[in-house]
Specification:
The protein has 3 helices and 5 strands. The chain is an alpha+beta fold and 168 residues long. It has a 5-stranded antiparallel sheet.
Amino acid sequence: MAENQQAAAGSDNQNQPQFALQRIYVKDLSFESPNSPLVFQEQWKPQVNLDLNTSHNKLSDNQYEVVLSLTVTAKIGEKTAYLVEIQQAGVFLVHGIEGPQLGQMLGAYCPTILFPYAREAIDGIVGKGSFPALMLAPVNFDAIYAQALKRKQEEGGDEASKEEQQTH
């Protein structure tokens, strides 16, 4: 009887939704400081702009690559002090999650996991460029995903998830 209970419990575990982070990596990283060293003589009160995008692609039945792309531009007046572009990526195992929940997972939850790694990489490269530390504020990917979904529904799209989601 105990064997039957264990077998039943084992089959229940196979049907349970599963999520696991398998790998986090930098897919692409670029740093430019086109106006150095003259920009170092300017008073440091930059205008910092952050653009971000997320995308994902299916690697296998249960594996997805999610890519968080960030572009940070710091300007002093019209001069670009620096420009950083990073594609922070991860491979995620997602099993037993489908439809809108899968879209939410890939479009909001996974980017939330990737963001601190991208933020750390950006801060490190900015420091190596001899600029003051840059700690990007946390991003609410759930709200961004919800806005993108609402915008898509208003445009007449009925598909809940999108292979490429762009937000600014």
